[in-house]
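Extended Data, panel c. Modelled sequence:
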Amino acid sequence: MAEERKEIDALTGTPTTGHEWDGLRELNTPLPRWWLWLFYITIVWSIGYWIVYPAWPLLTNSTQGVFGWHTRSAVVADLDELKRQRGPMMDKLATASLAEIAADPQLLDFARAQGRVAFADNCAPCHGAGGGGAKGYPNLNDDDWLWGGKLAEIEQTVRHGARAGDDKGRQGNMPAFGRDNVLKANEISAVADYVRSLSGLSTEPGVDLALGKKVFADNCAVCHGPQGKGNRELGSPNLTDRIWFYGPDKATIMQGIQNGRGGVMPAWGGRLSESTIKALTVYVHTLGGGEK
């Protein structure tokens, strides 16, 4: 039927395709010659590409191409060249002590550069690209340290992690006072108000701060100290400095008291090289103006 309806368009002299919609007939306009030639060239180019470069998958391998060039081989060659250039400094970094690294300006700059890259690859997903932290992940820029901010202390934390199954890692955690029926609901509420008052935060009228202070002394002071100043041996934060790990609102504090806290930091010692561990330590130390 379509063939029978084909005709020559009187205005352009071009045959129609036989398709018509609402009185509009489709012209069978040929493709531009330049477009056809480009199309043919791309076909020839693709055939040449198949021949020159690896392209076709086989049962156990693939065609290798005339050039035998692989992107993977190129990447490996570039990495090998980079290792060759950095090799002497990486070896020096691996064998030097942290004190020696800090005392050598050239080695210190190299460690910072390496540490920045290692931090972005391994630590930024939790601590943020700039080390600013997030809820439950410490801010590494503020020089407020849970486990200590000296080079050796940071190295231990990086190398052995926290609650990660490493015997040399950080082990402290916060008990679930509510879930384990140690404290009653009114006691949890009262001690949450008292904890907020330690850092000067306002409390609602009529709260029983005396009860909160007693509950704190009986249950919390053993880890956080009588004045709430914290204990680095246990990773217990200072509750008086207005720097909050999970948040300063009462609901968040009560949630922690109810269910406990105990986040895990990986032990990077078994995953990263010696030089990378030291570079990370130096980099993190410099983020917040680490302790001497």
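DSSP finds eleven helices and two strands in the chain. This feature is highlighted in the accompanying rendering.
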